[in-house]
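User: tokens in, sequence out, please.
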């Protein structure tokens, strides 16, 4: 997954909930997916998903309740706003040369948001495991999937 800024944002300062660059109005908890990837995974526009980081340190990092938005992004890639997705980036995961967080290279899995009858919102990590969640994608390859045209590697296999 790659992180992006909205039109109404400067670094981590958010001035509004609209993004004229991508046609988003009044919300920020969205994940951009290619329409064919959505179809392959059985997702429709406005479906709710949870994002789970695939960090090598084994720590569970989860961002919940993101709305699926079809977008012209390379297949196999996902995009979402930061700082909403900062929780998915390990504190010790940074670029070798710039020493900046690896927010443009976040390996993730998508799960349909887990909601039971009578619950409002989405499951928290308190006292729950993922047994009740439906995995949509857990891409493991022999190397890396490339977001062609974006110059970003989305998922890499652990060593």
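Assistant: Sequence out:
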């Amino acid at each position: 997954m790659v992180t992006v800024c909205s039109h109404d944002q400067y670094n981590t300062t958010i001035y509004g909930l609209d993004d004229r660059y991508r046609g988003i109005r009044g919300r920020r908890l969205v994940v951009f997916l290619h329409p064919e990837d959505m179809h392959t995974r059985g997702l429709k526009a406005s479906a709710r998903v949870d994002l789970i980081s695939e960090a090598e340190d084994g720590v569970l990092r989860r961002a919940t309740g993101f709305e699926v938005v079809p977008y012209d992004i390379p297949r196999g890639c996902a995009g979402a706003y930061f700082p909403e997705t900062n929780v998915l980036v390990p504190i010790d995961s940074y670029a070798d040369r710039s020493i900046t967080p690896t927010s443009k290279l976040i390996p993730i899995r998508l799960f349909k948001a887990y909601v039971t009858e009578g619950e409002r919102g989405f499951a928290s990590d308190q006292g729950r495991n993922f047994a009740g969640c439906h995995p949509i994608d857990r891409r493991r390859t022999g190397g890396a999937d490339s977001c062609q045209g974006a110059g970003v590697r989305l998922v890499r296999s652990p060593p």
